[in-house]
Amino acid sequence: MDKPRKIIDNLADALALEVDKDRVLHSATHEEILQGISNDIYFVKTIELLRQFGKADTTVVAEIFPSRDGVLAGMDETLNVLKNHDLSVFALSEGERFSKKEVIMRIEGPYSEFGYLETIMLGMLASASGWATRAREVREVAKDLPTICFGSRHLHPAVAPVMERAALVGGMTGASNILGAKLGGTQPRGTIPHALVIIAGDTVEVAKAYDESMPESESRIILVDTFKDEAEESLRVANELKEKLQAVRLDTPGERGGVTVGLVREVKARLEQAGYGHVGIFVSGGVTPERMVELIEAGATGFGVGSYISAAPPIDMTMDIKMIDGKPMAKRGRIPGITINDRLKKVI
Fold first, then answer.
1. Is the pTM of this model over 0.85?
2. Which of 51, 67, 87, 184 could be joined to 316 by an S-S link, Cβ 3.0–4.6 Å?
3. Does residue 186 contact residue 214 with C-beta atoms inside 8 Å?
4. Strand order in 59-66's β-sheet?
5. Torsion, Cα of 254, 174, 182, 26 (10° steps)
6. What's domain 11-129+313-346's superfamily in CATH?
């Protein structure tokens, strides 16, 4: 990745920036992010004023640390932003756990090389780590059961792939977002929506068509709560697909009480009584780790998790300067000098 040709590093350029009136999307492009256009204006002022002092290229050591415990994500993206700059960078790895106030990243080099990127780096780490941390909570409850991230519909499409990739880093076994899954090194996974069943008119007909047309690599998991009682529909689909049916999906809306422990138990029992004990029960809709515990006990064998992950609060990140020209230096309330963390590895 080459450096952008024009960095917004002075107030005049920032104020003169014009947004195309015909712009289709409000999200920043890759080039705009690297140019600092999605930055906080005060970092632009900082570089401009330091240039007046002749200190823009001052060699500094800066450290980044989180406001609470979590799971690290967004580091790979952050390093991609920094890798062609004249810097030495030490960091934890993607997917590692970190504790509150632990230094997760140390950057050494001229301030002008990375200072203007502070907002960008902190935002990348804060959001992705929040999503990865929630995903890890899901994974710890699910253990070996499949868990697919269904959270894209709750976020702006520009960042939904970032969220689903972070969910994979956190431990989800699948992601439904196409780009998010690809960025995470896997294939997108998902079942079918209610819209398909409603338009087609019958769950069994949809199940038959799905089985006939979809490749064997696609799981035979059929949604069974669109028109009829979930247990009845599960048996109808099982009678059609028999051993090819891997699971039924329960996504009962809140207007009907949602997916309850009792419902999972009943569907499981009726399938077993009819000789379909191999059919799993995949649950989606308002799934949280707390609910998962009792749903697993009732017989659930997989989960689609959306808003619990996508609505995760970011883990606030802070970047502090700790050394200037080789001398310990910090603002009041912080301890000057490098913070020792033997877990950091040199990555640039």
1. yes
2. 67
3. no
4. 327-328, 317-324, 59-66, 105-110, 88-91, 345-346
5. 30
6. nicotinate phosphoribosyltransferase (3.20.140.10)
